[in-house]
């Protein structure tokens, strides 16, 4: 039987409906722990559905570790709910918070799963971890029993941007179709870190199109391996296309020299990100006279346990339209090229400035031709 808990708190009037939440995802490969959430200016509400009859844990950490983490553990025992707020102490064990900053709003236990709705403030003077506009480290776990030990270890950690405003469903014209840049059953190397690249011919198009939505495609069960994805545009092809479809480690001796001309980032996705929808009057040009001759996909695989035998077909999916939009979007990269010789910031420096020179920028960006930013990403 479902149970609602009533208390005075300016969180949300919970409907306990998954589609009422801004975002939702599975935290584990086996789809055991499903988490949804929504937020307002002061509070965040979580809704967890977990295939267990024991306790359910959710926490926040600055670095992914248990020390100084803020942990909420709750569950249902003999038809009654229980919940407590813990923090990770200096010994990386659980200590009970004197006053709970988390509040259980709803609980239910069926024959196979536990469902909980709970909330907390985004920030506060007594909170171990404030929820900010940065990517947060979300700790999660569950147990077969309701017994909570101070030696609790989370089952996993996920990097997640929690305060992403919900995107309205884009209005699509009836002439849209998709273009995919994906690996094809690539064997994930059994090394801790790998940058893997694959080249693609420019899509065979009869006319120029505009990309309006760019979405990540992360192969099921490989979510833990795919750290980030980059799609480059390549404007020189001195080898006359003999390396199209070739794949190898990026920046290695086996990498074709032509790929050094692939420096223009067209899109980037990283852990915690989602689809990128361009404004309704803006698109990214593909197939035009000044567009890339071919494309290069780079995936950073994270494999800390050096696991063997996983094949991957992750990549990016572009939704494009034949209806030309009013404006075309481009990418401006600002910063330091982090290739040898590397730039090093001196220890204890109070500030450190980078200086760059761009003679072409003056003609590209003029005050009378205003450029509007529609998205930013830091690396």
From TrEMBL:
Keyword annotations from UniProtKB, A to Z: Copper, Metal-binding, Monooxygenase, Oxidoreductase, Signal
Species of provenance: Octopus bimaculoides (California two-spotted octopus)
Query: Is Transport a UniProt keyword of this protein?
Result: no
Q: Which PROSITE patterns does UniProt cross-reference here?
A: DOMON
One cellular component term (GO) for this entry is: extracellular space
Q: What is this protein called?
A: DOMON domain-containing protein
Similarity remark:
Belongs to the copper type II ascorbate-dependent monooxygenase family.
What Pfam family is a match for this entry?
Answer: DOMON
Q: Where is the DOMON domain?
A: 31-143
